[in-house]
Amino acid sequence: MSETTKRAPISVLLLVRDETRDVQELLPTLAFAAEVVVVWDPRGDRAARDAAEQLGARVFERAFDGFGPQRGFALAQCTQPWVLWLDADERLDAALTENLVDLANHARERTETHFQLRRVTWFLGRRIRYCGWNDEQIVRFFRRDAARFDDAPVHEQVHVQGCGPESTNGELQHYSYRTWNDCMTKMLRYAPANAAKAYARGKRARAIDVLVRPQLRFVRMYLLQLGFLDGAHGLVLCMLAATQVALKYAELWDLSRNGSHR
User: Fold this and answer.
1) What distances in angstroms separate CA 62 from CA 16, 77, 144, 190, one per listed residue?
2) For 251, how many CA atoms within 13 A lie in the half-sphere containing its CB?
3) What is the pLDDT of residues 102-112, one digit of tens each?
4) pLDDT value at position 190?
5) Cα separation of 21 and 48, whole Å?
6) Tens digit of pLDDT for each residue in 5-34?
């Protein structure tokens, strides 16, 4: 890799808790960036923090209080003009890496302040092409001085002022569901968090929501979004998504009955 590529004016923003294996795999692929900023949740495995430090990242310790605030803190630690927001289970392919480096090194020739990355997701070892997961475009590359994160506890978003977003070349590979344990952990973690987020926004649920909404999610993903074309993986994924919806609305139904102080 050339010296210019290594010194691209990019800060990679990364949150870490227990992802030691992902940190060890991901950080060596980020040598093109001027810095990697890691914010470690002290409730997690210290081995993940140690791995990040050993691989040259700037590591900060901060108690987790929601994804939005945590990423906002991480953004404040970045020093480079461009920021690449990644999750530990994501990987850039060669074309995307080359494109981002070129954009950062020639930023003065462009007016955009943020760019969309095309993300593809893998589920239990298979790339998902349907189920509503295909052709996902997400803003993950942006100017530091034009961006801020919202305070959402989960499914946070970055808000960027200025021109954009434009799309980039290449793909961002997402390996979020490598094992069945990954699936169960994420489902049990995100369902109550999504319910709390909805409740805070004034949304309420009835028992009928717990019954009907999971079925609607399955029909949408498996039939309308052609999840059946992903074979057995598509079927299991759609069933898992419906289960997560059931858990979310059961939690929201309980919150609606008893309030947030149960």
Assistant:
1) 10, 12, 20, 20
2) 21
3) 999 998 888 99
4) 85
5) 8
6) 457 999 999 999 999 999 999 999 999 999
Question: Is cis: bond before 28, omega within 30 of 0?
Answer: no
pTM for the predicted model, two decimal places: 0.87
Q: What share of the chain is helix, strand, coil (3-state, %, to 5)?
A: 45, 25, 30
Cα–Cα distance measured from residue 49 to residue 57, given in angstroms and rounded to the nearest whole number:
9
User: What DSSP state is assigned to residue 43?
Assistant: T
Which residue spans within the chain are E strands per DSSP?
8-16, 33-40, 58-61, 82-85, 90-92, 114-123, 126-127, 136-143, 147-149, 158-160, 166-167, 172-177
Q: Which residues of 126-151 are buried (b: 16+ CB within 10 A; e: fewer)?
A: eebebbbbeeeeebbbbbbebbebee
CATH of domain 3-176: 3.90.550.10
Q: Where are the domains of the chain?
A: 3-176, 179-258
Residue 261 has pLDDT above 60, yes or no: no
Phi then psi for residue 118, to 5 deg, are -85, 120
- At residue 153, the pLDDT reads 85
- Distance, in Å, from the CA atom of 10 to the CA atom of 29, rounded to the nearest integer, reads 14
CB 57 within 8 A of CB 27: yes
94, with CB counted inside 10 A (0-12, 13-18, 19+), is exposed
Per the document, the length of the chain is 262
